[in-house]
Structures are given as structure tokens and as C-alpha cells.
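Listing S7. Sequence submitted for prediction.
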Amino acid sequence: MKGLHIVHDTSIQDGDLDLGVSISFATKRVAEGEMFIVKGVFSPAALKEMVLEVFNSYKDVEPKVLDYHWGIENYWRLDNNPPKSSRPKVQSLYFTFFWNKEFPRVMEIGKMLGRLRNKIAGLDIDYGFREDDEHLAYSLFQHYPLGGGFICEHGDLLEPQKCVTVLNLPGDFDKGGLYVNPAGEKIPLEPLMEAGDLFIFRPNVLHGVDPIDPDKPLDFQSPNGRWRMACALVQNKQRIY
């Protein structure tokens, strides 16, 4: 695929991700709408444990929607085509915040993703991790369940992040998954990615998730399906839909 770079030499140095290509190269290519798949960054087995820890922690907790602000509690949300959202979607979301200490491994990986995003975007490396920043960072898990979990094709706001760093997490499904549509041509990415890979792209490049195993019963109570993790930026004191 033209405009897609496959990177194999990423490593973790002093708690940060060393991309394996220069940051200036990544910045230029992402700004031009090109994309990176970074192979084998994290252990799939360790990521599976992390996913199940988060998922199981909320099994008996009611989902909710909260206004985002410094000091907010961790929570989860269930979207079954919510009426207030402009985007059709069927998913569960797990919000974990850096001032909470509930999931240390989530915080460690989330900070790596956020700092790498900041470097590529030309932001201060710790932007979003401080209370006085205009935008605040959080670790987000998205679960597209068996039985038709999806999100419609969309583009996200370019500012302030300019770049999205997404970690592909272990999942169990046969049909559907992530695709991009950068120029009127829908390109499925699942055949190119495995658990532990990173996907890096410009947020306003059109993308979506096709329904996950839509021929099966919809099941939010099972961890099976498609999972991804990102370190997102959002305006302080904003409700996240």
C-alpha cells in the first residue's frame, strides 16, 4: 500500500519508545497523510493479561458518562448507538487516568504512547500530563464486541494532537476490523497487523471499524472481539462522547 511504512526496529529506551526511524521523518510523513505500522512493540501475552485485568475490574460496575477534568475517577462506558453521538458505533470504552494508580501497566504503556505522539506532533513531550495543560491525556481502551461491534467511518480533529498512536491489543474474532479510507479506497488493515503492533496516522485520515463477527449474538459481557489502546487528548472539562 502506497504511503504505508512498516517499521521493525522499535525498542524501549529509558521508558520511552524509540520508533526506529527519525522523529522528523515520522512527523513529515504523518503530516502528509502517510501511516506507520510498527511491528512487535509489546508482548501479546502481557497485553492479554492487561486487557483482562481492565475488563474484569468493571464486570460488576455500572457504565457511565462523565465530564472530563483533572482528578476524575477511572470509569467505563457502553455505546450501543448512543443518541447523543454523531457517530454510529457499538463499543465499550474504558477510561483510565494518569493521576489514578489502579492499573500501573496501563499507565506505563499509555505514557509511552502519549509521549511518542507528542514528539511526532511537535508538542512538549509531557503535554497533557499536567493539570494546567489546556488538553489532558488519558489512556483509552476500546472494545468492539462479537456480534457487530463497530464504529462508522470518520475523521478525528487534527488539533492539537496531529498524530494518533494506537496499540493493537489481543482479541478473538474472525470478521471485520480496522480499515482506512485515505483517498476514496477502503483499505483493510487487519491482515497487516498483530497484537503488540502500533498503528500511527494523522487523525483526520478517514478510518473505521467494520462490524466484528456480525453473524454472532451481540455480547458485551465477553472479552472476545477487537481491542485497541490509545493515549488520547481532550479539552479539559469536556464531556467525552
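Caption to Listing S7: primary sequence and predicted C-alpha cells for the chain studied. Residues 46 and 166 are 17 Å apart (CA to CA). The mean pLDDT is 94.
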